[in-house]
Amino acid sequence: xKRRFCAGGVLHVYQRTLYGFNIFYSLEDFLVFxxxxxxxxxxxxxxxxxxxxxxxxxxxxxxxGDISQISRFISEYTSLFVREFNSWTGRKGPLFExxxxxxxxxxxxxxxxxxxxxxxxxxxxxLCTKAEGYRWSFLRYYNPQYKLPHKKMREYSHAMRRxxxxxxxxxxxxxxxxxxxxxxxxxxxxxxxxxxxxxYIIWKYLPFDVETTNSYYRSYDDMIKAINSNTGSxxxxxxRHYCKTDVPYREIISILKKSGVEKIQNVIVASExxxxxxxxxxKSRTSASGTQIRKFLHIPQATSHSKR
Length: 308
Description:
By secondary structure, the chain is an alpha+beta fold. Helix content is 47%, strand content 8%.
C-alpha cells in the first residue's frame, strides 16, 4: 500500500523483528539503538514525539519531513543498528522485517490514543504498573520538572568524570555510542555510577519534541493521568501478539547470568546443539513459553509466529 503522510500529521511507525526475535538483551543494546536513532533524527530533521523500545519490536510517533525522508531515516538507523548488533554478537543477516508498519493520525483524539497506546506497551506486557515506570519509553523525561540526578563533578570518581567527558565529546561530534565504547566505560564504574551514566546518556541525547507531545494535553501531569487511565488503541497497524507478558524474558536473563553467561547475546550465536540444551533448561526453570524461548535464542521456527 502507498504510505500516507501530510504536514501536521503524526505518523505511528511500528517495526517488527524477523521471526519475532528478541533484540534488546542488555543495557548496551538499548543505549546503542537509542543514540543511533537520536543522531539520525537530528540529521533528517525528524520530530520524535514518542519512542518505545520493547524486547522484540519498536514503536515511534513522529512528525516532520515527507514520507521519502521518513523512510530514509528509518532505513539508516535500522541498518546501522543491525550492523553494530551483528558485529558485537557475531551473528549475520537482517534483524527486522523488510518493511515497517505505519498509520497516519490527523485528528487530535486519534493522536492522543496513539500516544497512550505507545506508552502503555510496557504496561500491557506487565513490565511495569505505570507507564512512566518503564525506562525505555522515556516518558519520565517529558516532565518539565525532571532534573538529572547527579553529584558535583568533583564528587565523582576519576573514571566517572572521564566517562561523562567521553559521552559529551561523542555527542558534540554527532556520533552515536558504540558497543565497545560503552563496554569500556561501564567496566570502570560501580553500580551507582553506571546508573548515573546511563541517565546522563539518555538526557544528553534526548531527541524528543516533548513540548509538542505534552501540548496534546493541558500539562505533563494531565498527560500522565490520561495515559494511565486509558491504554489507547491502534486499529490501523496489525500488531502481532506472541504472549501476554514479557516478564519471562527477565527470568531467562537472570538464570543465564547466574550460570555465568557474562554476555547474554552470546546465546543467539550458540550451536544448534547448545541451543537445544538451553531450550530444555529454560523451559523447565522459567515460566517462558516455547515461543518465547525460541525468540530469545533466535531459533527461526514457524511456531515462533503462533499467537500465545
